[in-house]
């Protein structure tokens, strides 16, 4: 009983720590975007298509990852909306002709490449994958609920 | 501490406290049950039913969305298409609202721990499928936008249909879960109600029974002892001092009964002492008056007897002289000179039976002398009884006195009566030793005479610094209570006339009294007699 009490939180803590170490999400943007950081609310505005261009009039290009991805789940946790909720928003926008949903890419490498190559692009990848080719806007560590 | 040792107040408090605890327990149990029932009902009405409704609505809205998508695929008119798109957008709003409602209720239920793991998993599965369906919807609208209508319809009827069926099945399962859970909650509430009812009923009955027992107990612990006390008091009033109350409890009533018992015991003892004193008083009064009477009689008899005693001697001497003279006459008669004259005398002597006359005269004189002797003995005895000779007291060994008395009776006792002595170590007693020896001789002789054939005499002495006790017990004939009452009275005797003077025991009594001692007799016909003498050592 006593042992369980000690072991359980310890394992849980180690688990969380390792996820923190290996599963930090970096929100990245093209090097030329005028912002250095974004709040959670602003990020949500970007990802739900409410903000369509940066301050320098360059259109915003949002990249998503395909489902069943740990990095993606972490990112949506930060946004505070589940993927299905976000999809509803985009489905409505599509039906009302207000915009297309962000392109969902297969891998983080692809996101990295696209963001580096596209002006006004914003996306998210595992922090470990990020090199000097993009700008890191926010780093998200996995939060306990 | 036992229950019966408690005070009355404590007994009552325990009894009523017990009832109170049971009633309080019953009420608390019922209240808790009621709270449980209320929670179940609240959960069902405020949460489960609205949740099931939200899910059912969600099912309808997703189905409507799918149908709208199909219709949209077949619509070519741009205006109708626009309307359909608006419609679908509204359906998505509704779906989102349904999900909002459901998730809010879910959070409430989770906080109350009423949200099952199964439902949680089902809802998560639904949400994943809903996302997949949305992805497929994007693809569908893309195909429509690229005018690939047949492919779009294929997608919707193929892959999307499958996902939708799964999704719909999940929603139906969710509704069922809520329905089942509602039923289970209703059953739980019903069980809670039934058990609360049963427990309350049972405890009510138990409480009533205990109350009844308590009342009976109170009657037992209070009214019954009080009734006994009343009866006992009435008996005492009626003169019966031998009533004894049982007092095994230590409460106030037990104390009362104990005090009552002590009171009657004290009364009884006082009454016995009084009766004894009365008997003793009567006895000593009787003995005193008898003493005075016999002293008077002794004195009155003594004088005339003295005449007789004093006169017999000279009379005997005188008659002897007369006989001597007569003898001379006889000699003279033998000389045959006064034959004729003496012939008459001879004839007279013959007629009178002269030798017999002489013998008789002597016998008569003997008789007179014996009578006078005996009378003077009696008088002496009476004097002993009434008044002791005034010699001084001196310390003496009582055991030794007993031994010398036994020695004197040796020839009477030997081979017939076995004497069993149990002499204790006695202090010297200040007394008139000769008188005490007379007492012992008297009692031992009586004991010996009471034994018809063979038997035993037990002599036991014991003493402390103040009192010496001598007990003489025989295995003889014993006495009737009537005889026992009179043995200390002068001239009372059970022996044949001439054998006992009836003065032995009265003298004994007088001697013991003169020593400030006490003599008691215990006897029953056939069981022998025991005389117990107590003498102060002084």
Description:
By secondary structure, chain A is of the alpha/beta class. Chain A has five helices and five strands; from the N terminus they run H-E-H-E-H-H-E-H-E-E. Chain A has a single domain (24-141), classed as Periplasmic binding protein-like II (D-Maltodextrin-Binding Protein, domain 2). Chain A has helices spanning 2-22, 40-47, 70-79, 83-95, 108-117, and strands at 25-29, 61-65, 103-105, 121-126, 135-140. In chain A, strands 3-2-4-1-5 form a five-stranded mixed sheet, with helices on both faces. The model of chain A has no long low-confidence stretch (mean pLDDT 80). With 538 residues, chain B is of the alpha+beta class. In chain B, 74% of the residues lie in helices and 8% in strands. Chain B has a five-stranded mixed sheet with strand order 2-4-5-7-6, covered by helices on one side. Chain B has a two-stranded antiparallel sheet with strand order 1-3. In chain B, a hairpin with a 3-residue loop joins strand 4 (455-463) and strand 5. In chain B, helix 1 (8-74) packs antiparallel against helix 5 (159-237) and helix 6 packs antiparallel against helix 8 (354-386). Classes of the chains: A alpha/beta (145), B alpha+beta (538). Chain A binds chain B through residues 67, 82-85, 87-88, 90-92, 94-97, 101, and chain B through 85-86, 88-89, 92-93, 95-96, 99, 127-128, 130-132, 134-135, 137-138, 141.
SS summary, helix count of chain B? 13
How would a crystallographer describe the biggest sheet of chain A? 5 strands, mixed
Class by SSE composition of chain B: alpha+beta
What topology, given as strand order, has the largest sheet of chain B? 2-4-5-7-6
- Provide the succession of SSEs of chain A: HEHEHHEHEE
Relative helix content of chain A? 40-55%
Q: What helical percentage do the residues of chain B reach?
A: over 70%
Distance between the termini of chain B: 53 Å
Uncertain segments of chain B are: none
Give the overall silhouette of chain B: rod-shaped
For this structure, what is the CATH class of chain A?
Alpha Beta
Instruction: Supply the CATH architecture of chain A.
Output: 3-Layer(aba) Sandwich
- Strand order of the main beta sheet of chain A, please? 3-2-4-1-5
Ends distance of chain A = 25 Å
Total count of strands of chain B:
7
Specify Rg of chain B, calculated over alpha carbons: 65 Å
Low-confidence stretches of chain A: none
The fold-level CATH name of chain A is: D-Maltodextrin-Binding Protein, domain 2
- Percent of sequence in beta strands of chain B: 5-15%
Secondary-structure element pattern of chain B, one letter each:
HHHHHHHHEHHEEHEEHHEE
């Amino acid at each position: 009983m006593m042992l369980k009490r000690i072991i359980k939180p310890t394992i849980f803590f180690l688990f969380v720590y390792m996820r923190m170490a290996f599963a930090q999400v970096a929100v990245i943007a093209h090097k030329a975007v005028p912002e250095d950081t974004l709040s959670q609310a602003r990020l949500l505005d970007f990802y739900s298509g409410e903000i369509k261009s940066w301050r320098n009039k360059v259109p915003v290009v949002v990249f998503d990852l395909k489902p069943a991805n740990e990095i993606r789940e972490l990112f949506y946790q930060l946004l505070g909306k589940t993927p299905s909720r976000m999809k509803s928003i985009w489905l409505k926008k599509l039906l009302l002709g207000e915009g297309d949903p962000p392109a969902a890419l297969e891998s983080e490498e692809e996101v990295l490449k696209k963001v580096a190559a596209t002006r006004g692009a914003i996306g998210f990848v595992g922090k470990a994958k990020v090199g000097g080719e993009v700008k890191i806007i926010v780093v998200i560590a996995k939060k306990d609920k | 501490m036992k229950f019966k040792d408690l005070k009355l107040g404590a007994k009552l408090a325990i009894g009523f406290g017990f009832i109170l605890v049971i009633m309080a327990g019953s009420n608390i149990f019922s209240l808790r049950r009621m709270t449980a029932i209320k929670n179940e009902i609240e959960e069902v009405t405020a949460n489960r039913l609205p949740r099931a409704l939200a899910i059912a609505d969600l099912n309808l809205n997703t189905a409507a969305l799918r149908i709208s998508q199909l219709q949209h695929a077949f619509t070519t008119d741009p205006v109708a298409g626009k309307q359909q798109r608006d419609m679908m957008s509204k359906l998505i709003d509704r779906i989102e609202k349904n999900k909002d409602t459901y998730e809010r209720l879910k959070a409430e239920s989770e906080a109350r721990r009423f949200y099952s793991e199964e439902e949680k998993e089902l809802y998560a599965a639904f949400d994943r499928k809903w996302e997949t369906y949305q992805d497929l919807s994007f693809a569908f609208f893309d195909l429509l936008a690229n005018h690939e209508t047949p492919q779009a319809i294929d997608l919707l009827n193929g892959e999307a249909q499958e996902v939708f069926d799964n999704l719909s099945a999940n929603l139906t399962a969710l509704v069922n879960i809520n329905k089942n859970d509602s039923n289970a909650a209703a059953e739980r509430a019903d069980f809670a109600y039934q058990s609360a009812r049963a427990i309350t009923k049972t405890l009510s009955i138990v409480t009533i029974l205990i109350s009844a027992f308590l009342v009976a107990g109170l009657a037992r612990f209070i009214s019954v002892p009080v009734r006994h006390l009343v009866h006992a008091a009435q008996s005492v009033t009626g003169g019966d001092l031998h009533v004894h109350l049982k007092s095994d409890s230590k409460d106030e009533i037990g104390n009362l009964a104990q005090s009552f018992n002590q009171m009657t015991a004290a009364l009884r003892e006082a009454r016995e002492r009084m009766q004894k004193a009365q008997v003793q008083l009567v006895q000593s009064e009787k003995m005193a008056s008898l003493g005075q009477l016999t002293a008077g009689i002794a004195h009155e008899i003594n004088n005339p007897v003295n005449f007789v005693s004093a006169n017999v001697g000279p009379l005997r001497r005188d008659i002897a002289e007369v006989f001597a003279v007569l003898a001379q006459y006889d000699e003279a008669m033998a000389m045959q000179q006064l034959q004729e004259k003496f012939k008459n005398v001879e004839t007279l002597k013959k007629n009178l039976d002269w030798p017999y006359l002489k013998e008789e005269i002597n016998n008569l004189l003997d008789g007179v002398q014996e009578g006078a002797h005996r009378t003077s003995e009696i008088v002496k005895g009476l004097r002993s009884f009434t008044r002791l000779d005034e010699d001084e007291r001196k310390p003496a060994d009582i055991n030794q006195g007993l031994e010398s008395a036994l020695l004197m009776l040796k020839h009477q006792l030997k081979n017939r009566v076995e004497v069993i002595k149990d002499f204790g170590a006695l202090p010297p007693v200040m007394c008139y030793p000769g008188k005490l020896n007379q007492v012992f001789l008297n009692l031992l002789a009586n004991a010996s005479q009471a034994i018809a054939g063979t038997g035993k005499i037990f002599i036991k002495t014991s003493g402390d610094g103040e009192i010496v006790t001598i007990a003489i017990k025989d295995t003889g004939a014993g006495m009737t209570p009537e005889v026992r009452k009179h043995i200390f009275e002068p001239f009372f005797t059970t022996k044949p006339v001439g054998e006992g003077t009836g003065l032995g025991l009265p003298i004994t009594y007088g001697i013991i009294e003169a020593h400030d001692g006490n003599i008691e007799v215990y006897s029953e016909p056939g069981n022998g007699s025991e005389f117990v003498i107590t003498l102060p050592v002084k």
